Amino acid sequence: MATQIALFNHKGGVSKTTTTFNLGWMLANKGKKVIIIDCDSQCNLTGMVLGFKDAKEFNVIYNAKEIRNIREGLAPAFESRPVVIQPVVCETIEGQPNMYLLPGHIGLAEYEVTLGIAQELTGSLVTLQNLPGSLSYLFNITAKKYGADILLIDMSPSLGAINQNLLMTSDYFIIPMAPDYFSVMAIDSLASVLPKWNTWAKQAKKQPILQNATYPFPNKNPKFLGTIIQKYRLREGKTPSAAFQQWIDEIEKGVSNKLIPMLKDNGMLLPDEVYKTTGLKPNRPLIQMSDFNSLIALSQKHKAPIFDLTDAQLESTGVVLKITKKSMHQFRDLYSEGADRIIKIIGNA
Ligand SMILES: Nc1ncnc2c1ncn2[C@@H]1O[C@H](COP(=O)(O)OP(=O)(O)OP(=O)(O)O)[C@@H](O)[C@H]1O
Ligand SMILES: [Mg+2]
Questions:
Q1: What value does the mean pLDDT take over residues 214-234?
Q2: What is the pLDDT of residues 104-144, one digit of tens each?
Q3: Which helix (H) or strand (E) holds 253?
Q4: Domain ranges of the chain
């Protein structure tokens, strides 16, 4: 079965989508078959990968004959259609034969309320019994169709029912953060909401009505892989500037003092030996990266990862090209290291 990794933070704009794309590409470079899944009704990931510039362009995947987006994939369960859920026809990605996109849908948000009711009434309403397991079921049959090893889940910035479901049915989760006050604040709300979600999932896993559903609720125990801190500015091109460093320190403090103890109490940390053998510490970021500066715009323009832009795509020459390439190679090393850590953890767990 494919390993499902959620990128989650209810704080917006902390690079969840950007990291999903770049990390997915790096894992694919390392020989893993990856599907990146757009579970955010903003559809940023889908728009970026497919190069859509306006909403109309989405009609190609919304009005297709085949099932080509997440909402159509889930429709048999959510709209009580007399057919079973079928795998989604994923999009191939130019330049990366090991990665696919399972596209998002702006209307996914319309399923949020129904899913919320199904999750609140866990086990007491037969008519809703197929909903809590349906996302996981859809992802798994799609993964099987493509022989995927890893599913990366790009989530919306919210604490809604869809995210509750996605996180609690994943094998692992990463929390992207930016070094600022808002990310420090988000640690508190994560520390309060994750235990509630965990309690709910524990109940859901025990409910016969959900286990006997057409799409059974999966028996998962999501584990924390770490944070990814990025978008800070460098001082003299080397270390984070003092102001950013202060927020990075605050984040690490919050993670150590609030998040980790809560995750431990809720069985959401990996065993100590796994962190040890992979040289990781759960309170230290899995990846820490500075601002991509001009590379982010070029990456989006060329639908290519930050770290694999060609000289032509970098659109510069001479000294500028040399400097840009140097910074690109640094990002490549960081993503590569992060991907190696993830592969090692998955292999060791
Ligand atoms: N390391 C980085 N350096 C510079 N810009 C970045 C970096 N990571 C992401 N960005 C930019 O920051 C913005 C937010 O990134 P992104 O959309 O990936 O965040 P998100 O967490 O997915 O947001 P949302 O919560 O809205 O889904 C985007 O404009 C993106 O291009
Ligand atoms: Mg996003």
A1: 92
A2: 999 999 999 999 999 998 767 777 999 999 999 999 999 99
A3: helix 242-254
A4: 3-348
Q: Do the beta carbons of residue 272 and residue 305 sit within 8 Å? A: no
289/333 Cα distance (integer angstroms): 11
- Report CA(289)–ligand 1 centroid distance (Å): 13
Q: Which of 42, 272, 280 lies closest to 174 in space, CA to CA? A: 280
State if residue 44 touches ligand 1 by the CB under 6 angstroms criterion. Answer: yes
CB 234 within 8 A of CB 326: no
187: left (phi over 0), alpha (psi -120 to 50) or beta: alpha
The response to whether residue 291 sits with its C-beta less than 6 Å from ligand 1 reads: yes
Q: How far is the CA of 146 from the centre of ligand 1 (A)?
A: 28
Q: Which of 319, 272, 314, 269 is nearest to 296 (CA)?
A: 314
Nearest atom in ligand 1 to 20's CA: 18
Q: Is the CB of 288 under 6 A from ligand 1?
A: no
Written out in words, the top-level CATH class of the domain with range 3-348 is alpha beta
Residue 345: name the closest of 223, 248, 168, 228 by CA: 223
Q: Which H or E element spans position 21?
A: helix 16-29
Give 314 or 244, the one with higher predicted confidence. Answer: 314
305 pLDDT band, cuts 50/70/90, is very high
| Each residue's pLDDT tens digit, 173-196 | 999 999 999 999 999 999 999 999
The model's pTM = 0.96
pLDDT of residue 101: 98
